[in-house]
Specification:
The chain is α+β, with helices and mostly antiparallel strands. Helix content is 19%, strand content 45%. It has three domains: 2-26 and 240-402, Immunoglobulins (Immunoglobulin-like), CATH 2.60.40.10; 43-237; 408-442. The relative contact order is 0.15.
């Protein structure tokens, strides 16, 4: 019992706080994350002219030239390329997290009648020959201009939080309400992104007419609306972590078998684990390394030169760490109703006579998105004793004065926490005894 009270003493708390403040944060993948995110956010100009056949729609534009009707196939696409940060197919709540939108068209044009493949447009049509006299009225016809106007909305949904954002740029910031909700994602919950709207394609055609003396300009406008719809889901890694001390079960242990074994539940994959003893780094284990990889967008029917990058991790050998992926909902063990997808069994040992007495054991966890979490406990290392001798054969009286004081009867009963708690437990019994004595005296 006294060990438990010492574990909760003010001295212990101050020691834990002092050591925790002395711990420096471990290495993290911030540079790789920033580099990939910055690279993707710089793709704005390329995204506005990126046609994805897999997410395209087509309509027919009918152009009347005299008595002839020419059918042009007009296609447009809007594609949710992905978030600005994607690591092992996971995204993460961060202030600059954005969704990248690729738009593009594949337009039909007025083609020369001679099969040359030339387009009768403002550059070629006015000087062309009869191949651009498309209605056979002895006057050349050609496109003078074409344009595309997009009217798009981006709908983002995470759990029960939804927001609709007008798309005025190829890069759309994720609203803060969603970022806040995403911070507690288990690691499997999806951010649902839907792009919808239409692309209006406008052509201006000079359908020149012969008036008996020459050909006069006759400008006509044609427009069609192409529907756009693209939906993609992206798993979200949260920030929450939960740590359980597996060994020792009590805050005391034999100094020849000192352990600090943990079970860690995390909403993001861990990147690095640092173990500290009394504020000094004792062991560092890095679980993975990262590479920036350019996704080949031709697999999605997009342009192969669109250099959208993601981060892929490569596991490294980390002694004493076991990693599992399994959705865990430890409702009886915590106040918040959080779930965790990544489970770690972390073993750490330390030892020797130099660690006799109280030691602050700490671990600093850094996840793959550079979030840090620290966990500390004050644990006593003791020798076994029988009679007046310890397990090394020497008399207890020869030990360090601190250890002698910790193991003496005076310390056991003189501990202020022990006396205070004993007083609280015995107070009701004393009150009952006083009442009984007073009644006996009156009789």
């Amino acid at each position: 019992m006294s060990g438990i009270f010492r574990f909760l003493s003010l001295r212990s708390i101050f020691l834990i706080i002092f050591v925790a403040n002395a711990i420096s944060f471990s290495i993290d993948p911030s540079s790789e994350i920033s580099a990939v995110s910055s690279h993707n956010l710089a793709l704005s100009s390329s995204l506005s002219n990126s046609f994805f056949n897999s997410s395209s729609s087509s309509v027919i534009m009918s152009i009347l030239l005299g008595s002839r009707s020419i059918q042009l196939n007009q296609s447009a696409s809007g594609y949710v390329l992905g978030p600005s940060l994607l690591l092992d197919n996971l995204t993460h709540s961060r202030s600059d997290l954005s969704i990248l939108i690729a738009t593009g068209t594949n337009l039909g044009h007025l083609s020369a009648s001679d099969g040359s493949g030339k387009i009768c447009d403002a550059g070629y049509g006015p000087t062309a020959g009869v191949e651009c006299d498309l209605d056979l009225d002895s006057c050349l016809e050609y496109e003078t201009s074409s344009s595309v106007n997009y009217s798009l909305n981006l709908s983002l949904t995470f759990r029960n939080v939804s927001r609709i954002v007008p798309v005025n740029s190829p890069i759309v910031l994720v609203p803060p309400e969603l970022l806040s909700e995403m911070e507690t994602s288990s690691g499997l919950e999806p951010l649902i992104v839907n792009l919808s709207g239409n692309a209006t394609i406008i052509y201006e055609v000079n359908d020149r007419e012969f008036d008996g003396l020459g050909c006069n300009n006759n400008l006509e406008l044609y427009s069609v609306s192409v529907p756009i719809n693209s939906t993609r889901n992206f798993s979200v890694a949260g920030r929450q972590k939960l740590v359980f001390l597996l060994s020792p079960i009590l805050p005391e242990q034999w100094y020849r078998n000192n352990r600090f074994d943990l079970v860690v539940l995390s909403q993001s994959p861990l990147y690095n684990i640092d173990n500290y003893v009394n504020g000094n780094l004792s062991q560092r284990r890095t679980l993975r390394s990262f590479d920036a990889v350019s996704q080949n967008q031709s697999d999605a029917g997009g342009p192969s030169n669109l250099d959208y990058q993601i981060l892929w991790s490569h596991p490294t050998e980390a002694t004493g760490v076991a990693e599992f992926e399994n959705l865990t909902l430890p409702i009886p063990l915590e106040r918040q109703n959080y779930s965790y997808s990544f489970i770690y069994h972390v073993n750490f040992s330390y030892g020797g006579p130099g660690y006799l007495g109280p030691n602050v054991l700490s671990v600093n966890l850094t996840d793959s998105f550079a979030d840090n979490f620290s966990f500390s406990r004050l644990i006593y290392s003791r020798m076994l004793s029988y009679g007046n001798n310890s397990d090394d054969g020497r008399s207890i009286l020869q030990k360090d004065q601190y250890l002698l004081r910790e193991n003496s009867i005076d310390s056991y009963f003189g501990n202020t926490e022990f006396l205070a708690s004993s007083f609280l437990y015995l107070l009701p019994l004393g009150f009952i005894l006083v009442v009984f004595l007073l009644r006996a005296i009156r009789k």
